[in-house]
Design brief:
about 35% helix, eight-stranded mixed sheet, two-stranded parallel sheet
Length: about 150
């Protein structure tokens, strides 16, 4: 387990996205994904990584929503009650106070990095919590009739 400050959260968020092999999970109530992170997510989708994003509180901007919904292998969910901030791939998980919101990068944030190898129990518990959140979320769908 590693304690992260704001810069650490930013750095490990990028590393966790880049390190995803089969899955990438992102949970954040407030989502305003900066373009560089959006491109990394899109790249992972093209590589066949299954990406699941759960947001809440405020809806994504329509331009972001359309982009994400058009990514192959990407599922987008909404849950008004989500306040958790989680980024999880096959090997690492981040739990933090930072929203996936570019403006949050200016705040004093703190987080924890978990490793599937070294923090197995906590890593598994994080997966269980994510699945609980997902079960109570509504999936966005693309309406091709419009």
């Amino acid at each position: 387990m590693l304690i992260l400050n704001t810069k650490g959260i930013i750095d490990y968020t990028e590393k966790t996205i880049l390190g995803a092999k089969s899955r990438l999970i992102i949970v954040s109530p407030y989502v305003d994904i900066k373009e560089s992170i959006l491109r990394l997510i899109e790249s992972k989708c093209k590589e066949g990584v299954k990406v699941m994003i759960v947001c809440g509180k405020t809806l994504l901007k329509e331009t972001e929503l359309v982009k994400i919904l058009n990514f192959e292998n990407c599922e987008l969910y909404y849950n008004h009650y989500v306040h958790a901030k989680i980024i999880l791939n096959d090997y690492y998980g981040i739990i933090s106070s930072m929203n996936l919101y570019e403006a949050s990068e200016k705040n004093y944030e703190v987080g924890v990095l978990l490793s599937e190898n070294y923090d197995k129990k906590e890593f598994d518990e994080l997966e269980i919590e994510f699945n609980r959140i997902l079960r109570n979320s509504e999936q966005y769908r693309v309406d091709l009739t419009k």
